[in-house]
Structure formats: structure tokens, C-alpha cells
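Researcher: Structure for this, please.
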Amino acid sequence: MVALSTVVALVTGACASAEDTAQPSSSPSHPTTSTAVASEALIDRAEPAVTRVPYPTRGPGDPEQNWGDLYLPAGQHAEGSVPLVVLIHGGSWESQLGAEVMNSYARDLVDRGMAVYNIEYRRVGSGGGWPTTFHDVADALDHVVELNEQHPEFTIDDELVVGHSAGAQLAMWAGTRHALNDDEVGNSPRFRPTRVVSLAGPLDMRYAATHGDSRIVTVLGGMPEQVPDRYTSVDPIQNIDTNLPVVAVHGTADTMVAPANSERYIAAVTEAGGIGGLTLADGEDHVSVVSSDSPWYPRILAIITETSGKTVDELREIHSG
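Model: Predicted structure, C-alpha cell format:
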């Protein structure tokens, strides 16, 4: 069995802002499908359903890229009885890879009784880049509100977003964009995730950009000193929310996005008094952490499931060391 090297870090914050304290910190755990009351069931589904849904974009969109795959679990489900997990794929913010990278996680999570929204977006080389890629991800996430009106079985008030690689940066941004100023891309979200799992994420973008990661420079349109406001707006380590639980998973053999990105981020979360856990996956590289063939895959699936199912207070205790 592959050796497990796990570092978890947490220091509770001293004083939360009025906005932060208004967010759920001790909400009840998500109910599972087994707790749905048959007499109140809205849905009785013999097998999981998968539907590709377009999401509206500000300005002209691309039907080939502006969509998400919505997975809904089998069984009887009452209103608000199914937790939602949003998946954001990686690929260096470029067009070579798409949402299919996260299909294994989507299928396994829906089999565990969750609703899953696996989103696609425009990337560098296919109409994306700054700011289109970020607008698309914001629009895809905000469309969750409409999807919930159509499928009220799943919840949208205390949900998890999971991202891999560039998608991990976008997932972190999704969890903190409520704090953006009115003139920043992605401000005023309609849907706000309350916990994040980062898989091999570039969570310290200034560090990565100045240590050879040209992909960050491409998507943001310059080095940190050239476009400092963009880095300030979307760099996870510059936008820590001490009430947002973050679990970072990083392969020790990752040569594309250095594990130092996750290590530096979780250290900063600890120093700020936030909720953060770091799992170093021994021997895993940048791609293997999203491969269902990896010996680490069941462990990562369990991390995602636990992070979705626990309350923020429970996650605080788990990641207290």
C-alpha cells in the first residue's frame, strides 16, 4: 500500500466579520438518501440520471463549451435531501483537456448519493483566457440556482466544490469571490460554496509564476508585477477566508505544479487562523491524483465525501491535528 503522508493544520480564527459569521458554521450534516422520507419524496429514480445542461453567459457564449453535466442519484429523494458537489477540471486553463477528466469522480460520487455538477468552460486556445475563463466559471456556478429550482432535491446552501490543477485555483476562487469588490471579475455570486477540496492546485500563484509556471502568466496575461491586480483578485493565497474549510491534496512526485504550492497555502491558512488540511500523496504525480487507476483514488474519494458530509465545525475538529 502506498505510504500516507498527511499533514493537517488549523488554527481557529479570533474574530469573524459580520458577513463571515452570517455564513453556516454549525449547520447540520447533509442528509443522505437513506434518510429521505418516502411519503415526502419528490423523486423515485431507478438509476442515476446524467443530463448535459447549458448555462447562460454574459455576452456571447459557446454552446460547445458553456455547459455542465448534472448527475442526480438513484433512489427516493425529498426536497433538500441530497448534497451537491461541483467539479472543476484542470488542464493549465488551456483547451487540451476538458470536463471528462473528472468523470470518474462524478460517477463515483453520484453512486454515493450526491448530486454532481461537472462544469466545462472556455479556455486559452478556445476563446478563453482573462477574463472570459473566469466569467464562464462564475456563470456556471451561478446557474446552480436555476438548476436547483428544476431539481429541488439537492441543496445549495452549504456545498463543496472540488477542483484539479487549474480547476483547483478556480474552485478556491469560487469559494472566496463573495469578498470581491464590485469592479472585480466574478463578484456578487448567487451561489457560494462553503468548503473546497483542491487537487494539485497552484494555490500560491505569485510563487508559481516566479518559479517557472508560464501557464499562469499566459492565463492572467502577465507576470505578477505586470498585472498585480489580477493576481490579487484570483490568487488563493492572497484571498484566504478563515471560515472556509480547505483540504489540499498534492502528489509528492508532481513536477508540473510543485507541492510547495499547497504547502505554502496551508501554512498561510494556519497562520491566518483558518481551517486547512494538507494530504501529501506519496508517489503521485500531477495527473494520477484524478486517475481512477491510482491506488490513492479511493482515499481521495473518501476525502471528498467526508469534506462534503461534515459540518464546518466538524471539519474544524478534524483538521485541528
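Researcher: Any notable elements?
Model: The chain is about 30% helix and 20% strand. The longest strand covers residues 4-10.
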